[in-house]
Write a structure and sequence with these properties.
- There is one protein chain.
- The protein has 141 residues and is α+β, with helices and mostly antiparallel strands.
- The chain has a domain of 94 residues: Orthogonal Bundle (Arc Repressor Mutant, subunit A).
- It has 5 helices and 5 strands.
- The strands form 2 sheets. It has a 3-stranded mixed beta sheet. A two-stranded antiparallel ribbon has the order 2-3.
- Helix 3 crosses helix 4.
């Protein structure tokens, strides 16, 4: 199930600093998909998750479960762990992944606090329409 408005899809690009004559300069725009495809510092599982996530358009969200189904993984937790380690954020938009019950889910390994507000803000800026109301922090006894 897809949430939100998929009419706002945009290609993802990332500026890569290139050393030129001893100094860093932004030489050109590179396609984020090709960067993810060729990166040697991520696992094959992470690569599959990140590439599938690039197909989720701006203004749209997807559940951890559905993203897992797209990459052949039955564990929403495994998807969350891959997203927690996303070195390409926000170009690989892990903030677009929410819980299957419509709740905001986690962000940068956190389930509440400033990072969740940042995720909510990113989704609102993109015009995502299926953002759950703010969650109250769980009281631990």
């Amino acid at each position: 199930m897809k949430y939100g408005n998929s009419e706002n899809a945009v290609p993802f690009t990332l500026r890569i600093p290139i050393k030129q004559n001893g100094s860093n300069v932004v030489n050109e725009m590179k396609d984020i998909r090709s960067i993810v495809e060729t990166d040697t510092h991520i696992t094959e599982f992470q690569r599959k998750v990140y590439l599938a996530l690039l197909d989720v358009p701006r203004g749209t969200t997807i559940s951890y479960r559905e993203l897992g189904e797209r990459v052949g993984c039955k564990s929403a937790q495994a998807i969350g762990q891959a997203l927690k380690r996303n070195p390409f954020a926000p170009d690989v938009p892990c903030h677009r992944v929410i819980s299957s019950n419509g709740e905001i889910g986690g962000f940068h390994g956190q389930r509440n606090g400033d990072m969740i507000e940042k995720k909510r803000q990113l989704l609102e800026e993109e015009g995502a329409t299926a953002i759950a109301p703010k969650q109250k922090p769980v009281q631990r006894h």
